[in-house]
Design goal:
CATH class of chain A: Mainly Alpha
CATH class of chain B: Mainly Alpha
Distance between the termini of chain A: 33 Å
Largest sheet of chain B: 2 strands, antiparallel
CATH superfamily of chain B: MetI-like
Low-confidence stretches of chain B: 1-29
Helix content of chain B: over 70%
Number of helices of chain A: 14
Strand content of chain B: under 5%
CATH superfamily of chain A: MetI-like
CATH topology of chain B: MetI-like fold
Helix content of chain A: over 70%
Oligomer: heterodimer
């Protein structure tokens, strides 16, 4: 009887309530888009305009005029961070999960501790190091600093997944005479494709969103990322909030794309760090 | 002959007792050779951790025990002062205020993030039309760059032109100077931070709920337990391990927050919304005259606090894995 009642028990009022909650939660996002399209003269209207009836694209013209290099820099930093993270994390995950690395438990522990260190402290340490090495205000330096957020996460995610690869698969490769490197390249890596996607997604998103490292290690750089572009915008011109919000909308595009394309991996990544099945 | 071959090829521990003896010499050679391979695959990570974790952290400690003025920073001849900078930090009037703000910001943030996240997780678990799509939309705040959310909140909370004051004004509330009054600055950044943390809590708690078998609820509902009773006598107790980890992770993340507060209030007015992380950031990078030594000292105090809770988290996780 319960099973026959099941499909009926999906009341519309819950959907309505859910839509209401979501709308309330996403109101700031709506407001950002709304303000980005508002005429400069209407920005200080009282009451504020709830809908951009008379939209302007001034803000967006300003973004593509001023911020295009910053968007390019962010893209470069994000992709660099993805590459660096995967090159380091994937083999390390393999060593931890499948090669019985001696001291593996200690290394695992160190990675967990590494994730707890505040970014502001890392930023200061990097500032001191980069200052003596002449790496301040370089894109390469920023990529390395940004990757410190993603590498421990990546190693832990890879090793958690790789530990579940059936041993028979690896055994078969060994019987065929494949060494550790060939097993890694032709079996472990292809099988771990989803982990690679999750790690890449987060490494990119974190690097793209980073403000702390950019504002400390790269603030006088010729190539600044978009987050710093927005920050400087706010500092220089507090009246043009439509332009600031337009930049913010453009800076949110990768997040929006990833949410649509790779939502599965997002949820996987969030839970990976916290809950172990 | 055939049987020994078969057992030697079996994974260790699988073969019968008699088969273990001939397998032993092979296994001894295997690990020794594969240890080199393991070390080789882990080597990039080890080098990385030493260069980009250990070394910067060491430099940070070095900063905190010397007197690094900006000139000494360039010339590299800072005077060694031992724990003097730490003493200065602890006796400074800003320290108790920053500690208090950190505690309020962190505790209020995670309590509300958790409560709202859990309520939403329970709501979404009941599975209605569009619930999957709506739940995905809830991830948006978490995916946006922090500078985007923080500057949007700053404009929404603007005293004269913000939408929040405009709505409150319609209900007859006087203008509130959210970000510029010392009474509300910390509250404002906390509200924004709660908003940011809800998706994380929702996702984790939702996946925790997923692991509670549906039969438990069906049995309870046959016994006549209503939704409220079911929540308090099934959901909440069974979710306790996941809850503990969510709260501790939230705590560790929130302790480190810089972006949101810095972009919305820069820790002001005065020190009204200055947390330890903001204090450290401001001393080092926020003013025209960087003062790295006290900044590093505050940062190291923050590390110690984060690690205390971090170890608590690891302890908790280990105990759960054992049970």
């Amino acid at each position: 009887m319960t099973s026959s009642r099941r499909p009926m028990r999906k009341p519309w009022w819950k959907t309505a309530l859910g839509v209401g909650f979501t709308a309330f939660m996403l109101f700031p996002v709506y407001w950002m888009v709304n303000v980005s399209l508002t005429q400069t003269s209407d920005l200080r209207a009282d009451p504020p305009h709830w809908f951009p009836w008379n939209p302007t694209f001034e803000g967006y013209t300003a973004v593509f005029g001023d911020q295009l290099p910053a968007l390019g820099t962010s893209l470069l930093v994000g992709l660099g961070c993805v590459a660096l993270t995967i090159v380091i994390a994937a083999p390390a995950g393999y060593a931890l999960a499948l090669l019985n690395l001696r001291g593996g438990r200690t290394l695992n522990f160190l990675l967990l501790v590494a994730q707890m260190i505040p970014a502001v402290v890392m930023a200061m340490g990097f500032y001191a190091v980069y200052n003596s090495l002449g790496l301040l205000n370089t894109v390469g330096g920023l990529i390395v600093a940004d990757s410190t957020v993603a590498v421990p996460f990546g190693v832990l995610l890879y090793s958690a997944f790789m530990a579940g690869i059936p041993r028979e698969l690896l055994q078969a490769a060994r019987v065929d005479g494949a060494g550790a490197w060939r097993t890694f390249r032709s079996i472990v890596l292809p099988v771990s494709r989803n982990s690679t996607l999750t790690v890449a997604l987060f490494a990119f998103l974190w690097a793209w969103s980073d403000f702390i490292f950019a504002s400390t290690l790269n603030r006088n750089g010729e190539l600044i990322p978009i987050t710093l572009g927005i920050y400087n915008y706010i500092g220089n011109n507090t009246t043009q909030w439509n332009a600031i919000m337009a930049t913010a909308v453009v800076a949110s595009v990768p997040a929006a794309i990833l949410l649509v394309v790779a939502q599965r991996y997002v949820a996987a990544g969030v839970t990976a760090g916290a809950v172990k099945d | 002959m055939i049987t020994t071959e078969a057992t030697a090829g079996a994974p260790p521990g699988v073969g019968p007792g008699a088969g273990r003896l001939p397998a032993a010499p092979r296994r001894r050679r295997g690990p020794a050779a594969s240890q080199w391979a393991a070390a080789g695959f882990a080597a990039p990570l080890l080098v990385y951790l030493i260069l980009f974790y250990a070394y910067p952290l060491w430099r940070n400690i070095d900063l905190s025990v010397h007197d690094y003025t900006i000139r000494a920073f360039v010339q590299g001849n800072a005077e060694f002062v031992g724990f003097e900078k730490y003493a200065e930090v602890f006796t400074s009037a800003a320290f108790p205020a920053a500690l208090w703000n950190t505690a309020v910001f962190t505790v209020v943030s995670i309590v509300f993030q958790y409560a709202i996240g859990l309520a939403l997780a329970v709501f979404f678990r009941s599975g209605f039309r569009l619930s999957g799509a709506l739940r995905a939309m809830f991830l948006v705040p978490w995916l946006l760059p922090l500078i985007v959310s923080a500057s949007t909140w700053a404009w929404m909370l603007n005293s004269d032109n913000g939408i929040v004051n405009s709505v409150l004004g319609a209900f007859g509330v006087e203008q509130i100077n959210w970000l510029t009054s010392p009474d509300t600055a910390l509250l404002s950044v906390t509200i924004a931070n709660i908003w940011l943390g809800i998706p994380f809590n929702l996702v984790i708690l939702y996946s925790g709920l997923q692991n509670i078998p549906g039969e438990v609820y069906e049995a309870a509902s046959l016994d006549g337990a209503g939704a409220w009773r079911q929540f308090w006598s099934i959901t909440f107790p069974l979710l306790r391990p996941v809850s503990a980890i969510t709260l501790l992770l939230g705590l560790i993340y929130t302790l480190k927050v810089v972006d949101v507060i810095w972009i919305m209030t820069t820790g002001g007015p005065g020190n009204a919304s200055t947390t330890l992380a903001i204090w450290s950031y401001r001393e080092a990078f926020g003013t025209g005259q960087p003062d790295f030594s006290p900044a590093a000292a505050v940062g190291n105090v923050l590390i110690v606090i984060a690690l205390v809770f971090g170890f608590l988290h690891l302890q908790l996780q280990r105990r759960q894995e054992e049970s």
